[in-house]
Amino acid sequence: MSHAPALPWRIWQVVSDLLILTKYRITVVAIFTGYAAIVVEGSHATDWPFVWPCLLALFALGGCANTLNQLFELRKDAVMNRTKSRRPLPAGRITPAQAVVFATIQFIFAMAVFIGFYGSLLAATLTALTVLYYSWFYTLYLKPRHYLNIVIGGVPGAMGPLIAWAAMTGTIDLAPLAMFAVIFLWTPPHVWALAIKLKDDYARAGIPMLPVVKGVDETTRQIFLYTVVLVAGTLAVPVLVPAFEHSPMYTTLSLVLGGVFLVWTAILWRHRPVMPTMPLFRFSIIYIAALFIGMVCDALSHGPQP
């Protein structure tokens, strides 16, 4: 009887560790941006029996890529204060072999959904390329070698709209490409705000993130410059993309929150390195979520796009 309460706790610990392997917070953002593309496309926006498998497959895709990322970075995670006890691989709660099995199951599930349920070879191909890009090219080659790793490495995190659109239609259109571009441009200032706080951890692990190689001053300058490009890009979307021509909520949020983002990053650069960057990091999450909520609300109010 004394061991009975331990079983539910062990089960919960395993589930919790598997979720950590998927980096579920990041993966949920990818799911939402994918759903936003489904709503903008319009033909299946509220057809939940048809949409849910796509969202689950997107979660499995992100989970597979993130599991492999942690598997390949096990030794680095073991020396970083932020990850050595929290992540299950360096902490020894999950073995590398178990992580490989978990990643494989997720990959097979995602591919089965996109090919078997949706019949979209394009979505399946984009899924495979995303996993290869993030877990192999970014993790094993790019991230350990160049301080601008996150700029090029932002591609996988922006793939949700493209894959979801491909699953729904079997094609790629200008609208999901624009959504991809917004996420891609947002990623560097978002990640660098966190990287400043974790600079010592990255240095200890030998990861050449921008604050480690170029210092905090240069990183805050780059954050500001990339934010200028990001805000300009978000404001260009309704002008250049027909699907977003009538998007009052998205445009308003782009103007207001983009203005806040620009002012904040300008002040951060001017007062470097005194100001903490974690509040900016958290705001950047609110910012990208708000933009895509605006896209969803505008699309729902206008119906399917031509």
Summarize the structure.
The protein is built from 14 helices and no strands. The mean pLDDT is 92.
Please describe what this structure looks like.
The protein has 306 residues and is mainly α. The protein has a single domain, classed as Farnesyl Diphosphate Synthase, CATH 1.10.600. Helices cover 77% and strands 0% of the residues. The chain is built from 14 helices and no strands. Helix 1 packs across helix 2 and helix 10 packs antiparallel against helix 14. The longest helix is centred in the last third of the chain and has 31 residues. The protein is globular, with a radius of gyration of 20 Å. The termini are far apart. The model has no long low-confidence stretch (mean pLDDT 92).
Second CATH tier, the architecture = Orthogonal Bundle
- Structural domain tally: 1
Determine the fraction of residues in helical runs and give it as a percent range: over 70%
Q: Ends: how far apart?
A: 64 Å
Number of helices: 14
Judged by helices, strands and strand pairing, the structural class is: mainly alpha
Beta-strand fraction estimate: under 5%
Can you give keywords for this protein?
306 residues, mainly alpha, globular
Write the layout of secondary structure elements.
Layout (H helix, E strand, L loop, with lengths): L5 H17 L1 H18 L6 H25 L1 H4 L10 H4 L4 H22 L3 H22 L6 H5 L6 H10 L4 H24 L1 H7 L4 H31 L7 H23 L7 H25 L4
Helix pairs in contact: 1-2, 2-3, 2-9, 2-14, 3-6, 3-7, 3-9, 6-7, 7-9, 9-10, 10-12, 10-14, 12-13, 13-14
